[in-house]
Structures are given as C-alpha cells and as structure tokens.
Amino acid sequence: MLCHKESLRGSIMSASSADSSLQPLVRLLGHARYVFSGLLLLTVVLLSWQHWGMEKVVELTGDHFPVSVEDDRGGGGASVGSLERKGHDLIVHCHISRKSSWPYCKLTFEFLKDGAGMNMSGFDYMTIDASYAGPGKSNFGLVLANAEEGMTKLDQWQTYKVNQIDALDLPADGRLLIPMKWFGVAQWWKDMAKPSLEHSAVAIDNVARAELMISGEQEGESVFTLHRLRLHGKMISRDLLLMGVVAAWVLCAVGWMTILTLSLRTQLKDSKAAIALLSEVNKALELEARDLAGQVHIDPLTGVLNRQGLRAALMSTSNLLSDPMAVIFIDIDHFKRINDMHGHDVGDDVLRKFANVVSSGIRSSDRLVRWGGEEFLIVCPMTNVYQGQILAENLRHALHQQTWPAGMRVTASFGVAQHHQDDEVGVVIKHADQELYRAKQGGRDRVCAHMAPDRGATAEAA
User: Can you say whether the dihedral through the CA atoms of 331, 334, 340, 345 is positive or negative?
Assistant: First the structure.
C-alpha cells in the first residue's frame, strides 16, 4: 500500500509539468458538466410531462363525423331504431323486438375519407359519457371496423376486420373508461372471413367506422343518450419519447466523446511522455483503489468478509441469490467468558481459528461473513434448508475436533434458514437469527433450522 502511494505521488509530481498544456481539456470537462446536467433536466421534464400531461383527446360525438342508426330489420328482425340530436347529445330510440335471435340497434360513426380511416393505435383508452332508460339494465358493445390493405374491399362489409368488446354496462354515474387493449377480434368474424394468420390479430390503425351496439334482454322501448364518446392518448407515446431521449443521450455522448478525442489528440499528439505519465497515474490509482476496496470489504481480524463485503458480493455475484439458497447464522458459545477468563488476545486467536475452521469446511462458492463480535454468517447458494442443516452439523462436529488456545473447548450454536422466491435477504437472515436464538435457548452447541410454513414449523438437530 505504501509503495502504491509513493508511486502515485511520484507520477503526479512528474505530470505536474504537463498540467499547463491540459488546461483547455479541463475547461472542456467543465462545460460537459453543464451540458449533461441540462440534458438530465430536460429528460426529467419530458418524462414528467408525458406522464402527467401531453394529453391528446379526440371527440367523436357532435358534428365531427357522420353518424347513423341501424337496426336488425335488415336481417329479418323487428327492432326499430331512430336517432335524435339534441345539442351535442346523440339520442338513440330503440324498440327491441325478440323476433330476431339477436335483436339490436346500432349507432354508427363513419371515419372513411378519401378511402382512408382513422388511426386509433396511438390512443390508450376511450371514455363514454351516456345515460340509459328502458327495461332491464343497459347492455351494449363496441365495434371498431378496421380496413386492412390486401384484405378489405370498401364495398364489402364482411371484409372489414371486426374488433369488438361485448357485454358493457353503464355504471351509476354513466361514465365508462374502456382501455383499447380490451378490444379483440370477433370470433364470428374469423369464422366467416377466414383471414390469414397475419390478418388475425387486433388492428386499429385504419378504422373505417365505430359502432355502438345496443341490445336488450327484454322487449320494449330503450333510450340510449350518448353525451360524449372520446379517444384519449398521448401526443407522444412513452416508447417513442424514451427512444428519442435515449437517442439524444447517445448523440450527446458520441458528440462529447468525439470532441474529447479531438481535443486529446490536439493536446497530446506531440507529448508521448505525458501519455506515459498519465498511464502510470491510472495504474497507480487502480492498484490503490483495489487495495482500498479489499480493505473495506474484509474483516481485518479474521480475513473473512464483513457486512459491506457481503453486500458487495450479493450485488456483484449473479448466482449468489439463486434459489435455493441457505443462510447459516453462527454464534460462538460463551465467548464473553473466554475473553473474561483468558483475555482479549486469546479471544482474538479463537476468532481467527474459528473463521479458519469454518472456511475450511465450506465450498468455494459459499461466502463466510463476520457479522459482528463472535457472530458469523454463511451464505450458501444452490443449497436448501436441509442441506444447510447438514453443513451446519458438519461444522459443529469439526469444532469439537480442534485444539483451541489455552486448552479450552470451543463450541457454537447454529441457525439455518432458506431463501425462497420473492423473499428479501433480510427476512432470511432474520429467520436464521431466530433459529440461532432458539438453539442458544435450547442449551447451545446445536443446530436449529427454519422450515417454510407449508413444509412444517421448525426442526432441531443436536
């Protein structure tokens, strides 16, 4: 460590003479801070605006699109429908007759203009504001008839893809929100049109008409008053905005790296010595950082991981949390008595040897952690609670076979628990700690294991 510091100090002192030639680069780095801060602020503002604002609303009622009413008489039924306008309201009078097996009245919105319909794929949901009066409860459905190239013939209704939602009912306040993802391709239309696989999925990118189908379980006069029918979405979709933001960051990063590269080439093209010195500084920094990182994660007394080391291992080792995973909590029995009777130096020797014995008895994939004082923790990936219990028993017996300082006998108590899917690591450690407490309460020098609720309560091995 001292050699690393001396090397770093010498490299920095040697490089100080070249510092004046790097001043433009330093100023460039200062400008980058403002550029990236501004881009970060812009990103937050755009994403917030997209989430809470940026609303796009299209009103379908009123005088925006041609509307008409049809009924089932064209198919042999006897239901009679008519349309009344009152301001922006569309009032459908529908006398339901059970002559047809599927009686209905239909309010139709036409969107075709110059052979093209409306693209509704960018909308998230529809809202209906309506009221109903008549026998029984309101029962209606929605149809979006989509015209698709290569399949739809404008003069043949059966070639339009029928995306529909059935069995809708108005709530008490008459306002209903319908996500666009609720629409599905009607099975009766598939049976009739027999579309190819590529034309079988929901598509609402060229909607020729929207139909509000009013049906009734009982005969009689029904009045369906549509106050508003609206489409809701975002002016810019979240996916498109994220793509734009990512592209801006990439362009900014690439531009910055290009400028930085050109600046470095300009500043250092005739200074090979400066490049060599910077390389030495980087190597010295890497060595020092590696030493410091190791010191931060290792318990200086026992040489095993400390809590920070466990945290780093859990974050950096992808398979450490792979289920099943067992956690073994260990506490050296009567360790305070060892310190009181033999002194802290002997106690430290016991801790070192204890860590060495346990380390020798576990796999290379396991992680031994000094949790604090005389408490240790073992994290065992790909190990269930029963295997962890066997490992703990083996370690307990291994302690009996050791020769300890001052001729003493050293034992330990063990608590075992298993990590289950969706468990937090802290919950598993808590279960192992509870089992350790149970082992100590039961007389120490024993192993207690925590079983999942559906596998039994707890098991103890002495």
Answer: negative
Cα separation, 65 vs 89, in Å, equals 13
Is 302 within a domain? Answer: no
Per the structure, the complete domain to which residue 230 belongs is given by 59-234
List per-residue pLDDT tens for the chain, 462 residues long.
545 555 555 555 555 554 555 566 667 667 777 888 888 888 888 888 877 878 889 999 878 889 999 998 888 888 999 999 988 899 999 998 888 888 889 999 999 988 899 999 989 999 999 999 888 787 889 999 999 888 888 888 888 999 999 888 888 898 999 999 999 999 989 989 888 888 889 999 999 999 999 886 678 888 999 999 999 988 887 788 888 889 888 888 888 788 778 777 777 676 666 566 567 657 755 666 565 555 678 999 999 999 988 888 888 766 677 778 999 999 999 999 999 999 999 999 999 999 999 999 999 989 999 999 999 999 999 999 999 999 999 999 999 999 999 889 999 999 999 988 777 888 899 999 999 999 999 999 999 999 876 544 444 444
Whose structure tokens read 């990936």?
A: 381
E strands, 134-179, are 139-146, 161-168, 175-179
Domain co-membership, 198 together with 164: yes
Q: What are phi and psi of 84, to 5 degrees?
A: -125, 135
